Amino acid sequence: MAPDNAIYERVKVRLKMRLVDLLDGMPSGSQATQQRQALQENLRQVLKGLPEEPRTTPLSSEEQDRVIQDVLNEVLGYGPLDRYLADPTISEIMVNGPSQIFIERDGKLQRVPETFRDANHLMAVIEKMLGSVNLTVNETSPLCDASLVDGSRINVIIPPLVLNGPVVTIRRKSRDWTMIEFKTAGALSGQAAEFLEACVKAKVNMVVSGGTSTGKTTLVAILSALIPPDERIITIENVAELELTGREHWIRLVAKGPNLQGRGEIPLRSLVKNALRMRPDRIILGEARGGEALDVVQAMHSGHDGVITVLHANTAHAALERLETLMLMSGLELPPDACRMQIASAVDLVVHLGRFADGSRRVATISQVLGSAQTGFHMEDLFTFESSGFSSDGQLRGECRYTGAKPKFLSKFQLNNVEVPSWIKQ
Question: What predicted TM-score, i.e. pTM, was given to this entire model?
Answer without folding.
Answer: 0.79
